[in-house]
Amino acid sequence: MPDLERYAALDLGSNSFHLLLAEFRDQRMVRLHTDRSMVRLAEGLDEERNLAPAIAERALAALHRFRPVLTELPTDHIRCVGTNTLRTAANADGFLESAESILGVPIEIISGIEEARLIYSGAMAAADGPPRLRCIVDIGGGSTELVRGREVPHRLQSLYMGCVSFSKRFFADGILSTNTVNHFERARRAARAELQELQHLAENAEVVGCSGTVKAVARVLNGGELSAIKREDIDKLAEQVAGARHIADLKLPDLDEERHPVFAAGLAILHAIFCELDIQSMQVSPYAIREGIVHDLAGRLHGGDRRADTVATLMHDGKVDAAQARRVGDTALDLLNKLRPDTPADQRQRLRWAAQLHQIGLALSHSNFRKLGAYMVEQSDLAGFSKNEQEHIAHLVRNQRGRIKPRREHYGFRPNPDLLLCLRLACIVHRDHTDRAVNDLELKARDDRYRLRIPQEWLEKNPAIEDLLYQEVDHWQSQPLMLKLDAV
């Protein structure tokens, strides 16, 4: 199998960083190399959600170790995702900049719901037998994901509880119980409170657990094997841990030393899930988010991009005029080809999606459709998209016409004015929802301005568009690159 069919997935989790190198053979994924570093990123967050420098350095050192595996792969065969801690860290920008310079690929911060979707995809890749209703459980360092589905996920949940965050909250000094307070019981009750109204997720479903906490509990209960976790066994284990005085007192068989400090917190969450969802048995999956990322990557490159399905669903639900979305998208891309013929494929695709969604807010309001559309794109849980991608598309949707609203740039968000100009011009050309060719238009970029050259005859045929174009020139006067219109 050529290297072009190899993929790498990096999961920058709150407890550990994981790397997976895999390839597909006869449409079957084969894991070639795995690596893990227990960085406990969530441990480094202070009360103001700032990441401690020492923890950041520990995490960057792990990425240096991962880097050699990535050097021979095309960048579009690599996907690196950041989860709960990087979603919440107030000072994540500096860390992300350093991390990306080490890895040589962008890091995508994903929502909890997108994390759940990828976990489900990974677990399903390892599932045997005919499709059946399943409930997938994954306890991470900073969040816990639960998914109910059959062939596709039907319900996705991401809860703000994880083995590292609960360790900091309930077992910061390592004490499990005292004469007056049982901290393990407090942690379990807190987890059960988070699970309220989710009891139905496991109803009539096969329950499957993924990742470190579930695997650690399975090994402790089953002599080192990843066999099913039975209710009566985890009840006894939880009782044993709840009766211990200190984490250091836990002498459990087949427990990885690196997992030891967060084991009690993870067990409290897992046992709460068993109790609250009335689970009697949980199978253990060898796959999780990393395998889901690899399958997602392969789909993007072979015509199965989940993001395209998400956009199509949004267009349908928002009653978007598909013909107008096509017109604007085609013209925007034609103009971009004239302006920057070497624009990367991901930027072109971003422009296409923005054109498809530029009128989505009309289903709610005619006067505020741009603002509402941008809000919907940025704040919704969009399957397949990173938070950065949503922010970029929302910026385009918000600024498709009128005054260009400034927005603070930050790491991961550097708006591309080329895309914005081409979208805005395409919206002007097709403001009346009419097909109109732009073959005779020339669009170039100079050092300090864009230049749009239009035949006078074309303008005379479209007088309303001429006025809109001169208004557009005015809107770009305050931008770093101004727009000049030449009628020839």
From TrEMBL:
Signal sequence residues: none
Domain Ppx/GppA phosphatase C-terminal stretches: 307-472
Residue ranges the record marks as coiled coil: 181-208
CDD domains xrefs: ASKHA_NBD_EcPPX-GppA-like
Gene3D superfamilies: 3.30.420.40, Exopolyphosphatase. Domain 2, Hypothetical protein af1432
InterPro entries reported in the protein's UniProt record: ATPase_NBD, GppA/Ppx_hydrolase, Ppx_GppA_C, Ppx_GppA_N, PyroPPase_GppA_Ppx
Pfam families the UniProt entry points to: Ppx-GppA, Ppx-GppA_III
Cross-referenced SUPFAM superfamilies: Actin-like ATPase domain, HD-domain/PDEase-like
Alphabetically ordered keywords of this record: Coiled coil, Hydrolase
Tagged with keyword Hydrolase: yes
Residues annotated as domain Ppx/GppA phosphatase N-terminal: 23-298
Protein name listed in UniProt: Ppx/GppA family phosphatase
Origin species: Microbulbifer taiwanensis
